[in-house]
Amino acid sequence: MEPRELESLLNKVGSKYKLVTLFQKRMRELQRGLPRLAESETNNTWEIVSKEIMSSKVDLVMGDEAEQMRKELALREAEENADSDKKGRRSEAKAAEAKS
To answer: 75 vs 12, 60, 95, CA distance in Å?
Structure first.
């Protein structure tokens, strides 16, 4: 990475610690299969994350705000799972009725 690019990333994020943490977390997400948020011609995750940061597609959320977001995400996932379960049971009931 060129010094100018690194300096731009540091200015965008605010600190070395936050930049390293953001890179680590986002690279892990990409390795787990989450979609890219910025277009890139390369498969180099370092360059992909750099573009995502510079285009303000990702940011590091910490502290109480992060905890609140985790709770909201868990609640949303629980609701989605409950809805999926209900739809699955309805489909099973309709299939059973059709066989009767």
So the answer is: 31, 21, 30
Residues 6+ apart with CB under 8 A from 41: none
Q: How far apart are CA 35 and CA 28, in angstroms?
A: 12
What is the rounded CA–CA span in Å between residue 40 and residue 42? 5
The answer to whether the predicted template modeling score (pTM) of the entire model surpasses 0.70 is no
- Asked whether the beta carbons of 13 and 19 are under 8 A apart, the reply is yes
What confidence tens digit (pLDDT) does each residue in 38-78 have?
A: 888 888 898 999 999 999 888 877 788 778 888 888 888 88
Give which of 1, 2, 5 is closest to 54, Cα–Cα.
5
The residue behind tokens 């309709």 is 94
CA dist., res. 27 & res. 31, Å (int): 6
What are the C-alpha distances in Å from 28 to residues 19, 24, 34, 45? 14, 6, 9, 9
